[in-house]
Specification:
- The complex is a heterodimer.
- Chain A is an all-beta fold.
- Chain A has no helices and eleven strands.
- In chain A, the strands form two sheets. In chain A, strands 2, 4, 5, 6, 9, 10 and 11 form a seven-stranded mixed sheet that branches.
- In chain A, a hairpin with a 6-residue loop joins strand 4 and strand 5.
- In chain A, 36% of the residues are buried.
- In chain B, strand 7 and strand 8 form a beta hairpin.
- The mean pLDDT of chain B is 93.
- In chain B, the strands form two sheets. In chain B, strands 2, 4, 5, 9, 10 and 11 form a six-stranded mixed sheet that branches.
- Chains A and B meet through strand 5 and strand 10 of A and strand 4, strand 5 and strand 9 of B.
């Protein structure tokens, strides 16, 4: 069974530029999560989807961050414009439908904003 | 205020000995706990979990103990191997209801020396 796929693995951009990350969850996993991980910290949830519905986006900075999961499978997270403080690892995870299910993580996208 | 705390940023253990990683939580509503292992430049990998109805769960060399009254859990690795060297994250969640997001600690870096 293929794991969670993320691309790109690394991205370097200048501040004020836009950037997008892509995630394809494990087949059959209805719930998809985007996490932000800063250096020396644990992952922090940005947004959670159940199928194509964003059921928790309370931690997503909506002035510059947006996400979509149009067909309930893969998902895109966008930052526009990026700021220096956005430099971090962006992790995608998926699980079967329902809370309490184990989440499986992708390798992450390491973003550096210069 | 951190709801999940891993107070030891690092731990060094000799190969073959026991590794004990600790985690404390403050939210008494948490009822499902997980441990993830993370190697550099990779996403967190699920290791083992425990429900609040249990006080112990074992999987091979890994055992998680839960003390609900103390709001404390620990991960025991016996015997420790050099390949176990990684950052270990403790995470907690509430099964059911509207909240199903994982709350992570900051991680403990385990070094197992040959």
């Amino acid at each position: 069974e293929a794991g969670v796929v993320q691309s790109p693995r690394y991205k370097i951009i200048e501040k004020k530029q836009p950037v997008a990350f892509w995630c394809n969850p494990i087949s059959g996993h209805n719930t998809l999560y985007w996490y932000l991980q800063n250096l020396g910290q644990g992952p922090e949830l940005l947004i959670r989807y159940e199928n194509e519905e964003a059921v928790d986006d309370s931690q997503l900075p909506k002035d510059r961050f947006s996400a979509e999961r149009l067909k309930g499978v893969d998902s895109t997270l966008k930052i526009q414009p990026a700021e220096l403080g956005d430099s971090a690892v962006y992790l995608c995870a998926s699980s079967r439908l329902g809370v309490g299910e184990t989440q499986y993580f992708g390798p992450g996208t390491r973003l550096l904003v210069l | 205020d951190q709801q999940v705390k891993q107070n030891s940023p690092s731990l060094s253990v000799q190969e073959g000995r026991i590794s004990i990683l600790n985690c404390d939580y403050t939210n008494s509503m948490f009822d499902y706990f997980l441990w993830y292992k993370k190697y550099p430049a990779e996403g967190p990998t699920f290791l083992i979990s425990i429900s609040s109805i249990k006080d112990k769960n074992e999987d091979g060399r890994f055992t998680v103990f839960l003390n609900k009254s103390a709001k404390h859990l620990s991960l025991h690795i016996v015997p420790s191997q050099p390949g176990d060297s990684a950052v270990y994250f403790c995470a907690a969640t509430i099964v059911g209801g509207s909240q199903g997001n994982l709350i992570f600690g900051k991680g403990t870096k385990l070094s197992v020396k040959p």
